[in-house]
Amino acid sequence: MATFTGTTGDDTITPGLVTSGVVVVPAGTKPSNANDIINAGAGADTIDSGGGNDTVAGQQGNDIIRLGDGNDTALWNPGDGSDTIDGGAGFDTLDFFASNASEIVALSSNAGHLRLSRDVGSVTLDVDAMEKVVFHAFGGTDSITVGDLSGTDVTQVVINLEGVLGSGSGDAVADIVVFNGTDTSNSITISGVGGSIAIAGLPWTAAVSAADAFDRLVVNGGGGNDTISAAGLGTTLASLTIDAGLGNDTVIGSAATDVLLGSAGNDVVTGSAGNDIIFLGAGSDRAIWNPGDGSDTIEGQGQTDTLEFNGSAATENFTLSANGGRARLFRDVAAVTMDLDDVELLVLNAGSGSNSLQVGNMTGTDLVGSIVYVGGSQVDTVDASAAFNDMIVTGGGGADSLIGGNGDDYFRYFSGADAASGEVVLGAGGVNDTIQLFNTGAIGFSAVTLSGLERLQFASGNSSVTFKGDQIGGSGIERVTGGAGSDAVIVKGNLLDLSTVLFSGWNDATDRITLFGTADVSHLTGSVRNDVIHGGGGADRMAGEAGNDVYYVDNIGDRTIEEAGGGTDTVYSAVNYVLASGQHIETLATTLLAGTGAIHLTGNELGQRINGNNGNNGLNGLAGNDVLAGYGGHDWLKGGAGNDTLAGGAGFDNFVFDTALNAATNVDRITDFNVTADTIRLDNAVMPGLGATLGTLAAAKFWKSTTGLAHDADDRIIYETDTGKLFYDANGNGSGGAVHFATLAPNLALTNADFVVF
After folding, report:
1. b (16+ CB within 10 A) / e for 740-755
2. How far is 676 from 650, CA to CA, in rounded Å?
3. Could you give the CA distance from residue 744 to residue 522 in angstroms, rounded to a whole number?
4. pTM of model > 0.85
5. 386-412 tens-digit pLDDT
6. Could you give phi then psi for residue 469, rounded to 5 degrees?
7. pLDDT for 604-644, tens place per residue?
8. CA distance from start to end of the chain
9. 526 within 8 A of 546, measured Cβ to Cβ
10. Mean pLDDT throughout 13-31?
11. N or C: which end of the chain has fewer CB within 10 A?
């Protein structure tokens, strides 16, 4: 190893030449592959250290230094000049020793070379093939900026803020160290503890040592969609600023008090512990607060910005209020206060405790837009009665309470988690207060107080929701919007009116509306869609309005009201029932087709289909063109006036004819007459020619033929065998007396025994 000490002139110290005056130890030696030490002295020197692991100090003057092969170290000290350094092969280090003065230093990339500039002395170093830079700041208020070093050979940067070399302590004055990222997307991590900080994720690694409480570290993301996390940074002495820069970035602060900037793009910023100051910048950004974080100040700045505040498992009480033009959110646990400006949306995830939120009048703040509250698994209380905000509230589990404000409030209900019993949801104002239903399952609001709510919205899944009568229609919910699944609205009470409720996005094929009366007398009015209405006990009044409605009757005093053009409607009755005159009901039936109760059903002057069950039914069509079906049992079917169709079904059935005959307007068809089981009953009041003798029709009074004509004066009931027509003939084979009154199947083995006179 040789040592070279230059003169105050312009020296050359190279393997080929060492100029006169240079002190060489051992004498006569030239730089070689040994580990040389070269101190060039003053003047513009030219140095080539050759091979070996050399240490070279150009000293004063603007020197040209070629380090050659080996792991070399170039030294720069205060008073040295603007040197040009080529590290050559190997892993080389630039050790830059600043002064105790206040200095501005910048490291940057310049055409593939490292440029190090220092304002004191107007020093500029041009460095190539240098892998590591160590900057020793010493005393003074220093500003050190490490720019984007992409394209250079630098892989490590160390900023040593020691006041005295080797002391391990800072200089107790305010230094600022800035690291700039690249224009591409990087995942940058900041870690460390005390005065030691490490930065990874850039094309080079960086470290700061001996930082003290007076110092600030700034990390700029640059371009690209960066992730910058200081989550691994423990309690350090220096302050931290992170500027995400361009792109849609993710920023996570440290455990201390940080300054975090989202800058341009749609960024997500989490302050972490410490009372942080967050500037979200341009774009629609999101700030996140988690349990254990501090009291942060958030400036939303451009576009629509959101604070997502996540509660804990503890019982928490939140207060949201205006503070001039700023919003203030207070959490009693840990006494957290969030100071917000230019934040348009608050999402408060309350956690799993029993929580409360009190919302004041937010007029004048930027939170007039929307507040979203997501409850936990316990009892939640939200009181926004003084607010003018649009609120969206997800109740979560437990018996939750919402007191809405004068804005448009939303109560989001997730049936998989909520327990509706005992929930109280109050909307104090607004014009579009809404309950939104998510997921699947049955949801019951019948034990809930609802008022001031205007809308019910199904969002997804197959949901069924139950309301009390005053909760929907009238002063309750006015609009229902169906979702993607099969939805159901069930309403219970004795005074129900859904006639003014607007149903949109409603699929009548898969969605349903059901009204249930009580044990008392109920007045039930359906919607303009397809309703199912159960009267309950008592003599109820049921009106379906428009739509294809279904009524369930269980009291002979029940009234079903249907206007003309009101859809295709059905009444199912569990008791003897008579349709009221003028009601446009298309089907009247027993409640259970398979039932065996002897239920008697009577239509009205309009045409109906009337269905029995497996019991012994009495079916009476009255007027109109009716279709009567007895099904099982021994039924009595009376078509009444009109051209009716009668089917007795199984059993011994009786078909009754007791209305004035008219071959054009009162001819019934019996579709399934069974000569061994069924009977046709004839009223001698409308067929006086049958005589006063009651019982089985006299044999002389019956005749059958292919012509349908009487063969003597005694014939009264004539069966035309080839057509199945039945005639009543008042004068036998006299002229003009035959009237067609029924039609059976042709060619039946019909006899007088199939007829009974009454």
Report:
1. bbbbbeeeeebebebb
2. 12
3. 44
4. no
5. 766 666 666 666 656 666 666 666 666
6. -60, -35
7. 999 999 999 999 999 999 999 999 999 999 999 999 999 99
8. 142
9. no
10. 81
11. C
